Recover the amino acids of this structure.
């Protein structure tokens, strides 16, 4: 394991930070990328405490910039000679709905959560073929179940799921394993970065429904899975000899996704998510 190299996006906080630490603890040379390296202190301090600082290489990467992505991957190959795994973790939450979101708002969500995954995966795939490596992407239960006030975010994650589910068997013919990891609620700064006050101010006729939704979401995240536990599922996918194409990070996430996968006419999901707005 000591010669294997993994590149992870979005590692300044939350699941990404824990994935970086977990990979380093497992002996991977870990390239931990983030859009703003000024936010790397938490990762560096945790790496020092865990005794793995020498295995973590922090680099700046904005996944929405395809030239920067290509340059970063080339630099990693130049530094280490190989790339054995990529974890697409960078993402951004968004609360809004069709009549309040601009098309530019939706495009911005897609750029980070969908096109960012494509940019990184495309740049990495030739090197992953050479190493017969792994392409692991942190998706979401929101990539399976559409959720009110999350239209743009779920659209991006649905796109990630459809794209990589379609790619997985093709990549497998060249020795690359593709896995989608689907967390539910995770205790991290992901939701804290959503401006709920601004969303309420813009909600118009949907304000009562949004307030109910936010109350329900607050309760869900109060009992959220830890980022470390979610990250452990990602690390398992990197080392499993026969990793699944899709895996959830908790029993709750599995049950939630299961409602959709057994719901041929959409009525079960409509009842479930409609209940969040009462």
């Amino acid at each position: 394991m000591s010669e294997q190299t993994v590149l992870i996006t979005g590692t300044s906080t939350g699941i990404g930070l824990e994935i970086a630490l977990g990979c380093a603890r497992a002996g991977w040379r870990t390239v931990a990328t983030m859009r703003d390296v000024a936010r790397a202190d938490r990762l560096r301090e945790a790496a020092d405490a865990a005794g793995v600082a020498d295995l973590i290489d922090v680099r700046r990467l904005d996944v929405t910039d395809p030239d920067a992505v290509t340059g970063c991957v080339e630099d990693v190959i130049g530094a280490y000679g190989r790339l054995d795994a990529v974890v697409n973790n960078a993402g951004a939450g968004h609360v809004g709905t069709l009549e309040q979101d601009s098309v530019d708002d939706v495009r911005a969500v897609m750029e980070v959560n969908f096109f960012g995954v494509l940019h990184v995966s495309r740049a990495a795939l030739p090197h992953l073929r050479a190493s017969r490596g792994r392409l692991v992407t942190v998706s979401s239960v929101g990539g399976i179940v559409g959720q009110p006030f999350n239209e743009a975010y779920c659209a991006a994650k649905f796109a990630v799921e459809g794209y990589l589910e379609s790619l997985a068997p093709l990549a497998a013919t060249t020795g690359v394993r593709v896995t989608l990891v689907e967390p539910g609620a995770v205790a991290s700064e992901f939701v804290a970065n959503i401006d709920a006050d601004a969303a309420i101010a813009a909600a118009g006729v949907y304000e009562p429904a949004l307030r109910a939704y936010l109350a329900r979401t607050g309760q869900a995240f109060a009992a959220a899975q830890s980022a470390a536990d979610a990250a452990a599922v990602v690390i398992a996918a990197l080392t499993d000899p026969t990793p699944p194409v899709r895996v959830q990070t908790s029993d709750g996430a599995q049950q939630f996704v299961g409602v959709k996968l057994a719901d041929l006419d959409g009525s079960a999901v409509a009842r479930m998510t409609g209940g969040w707005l009462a």
About this structure: The longest strand covers residues 29-34. The radius of gyration is 19 Å. The CA atoms of residues 230 and 249 lie 5 Å apart. The first helix runs from residue 14 to 25.
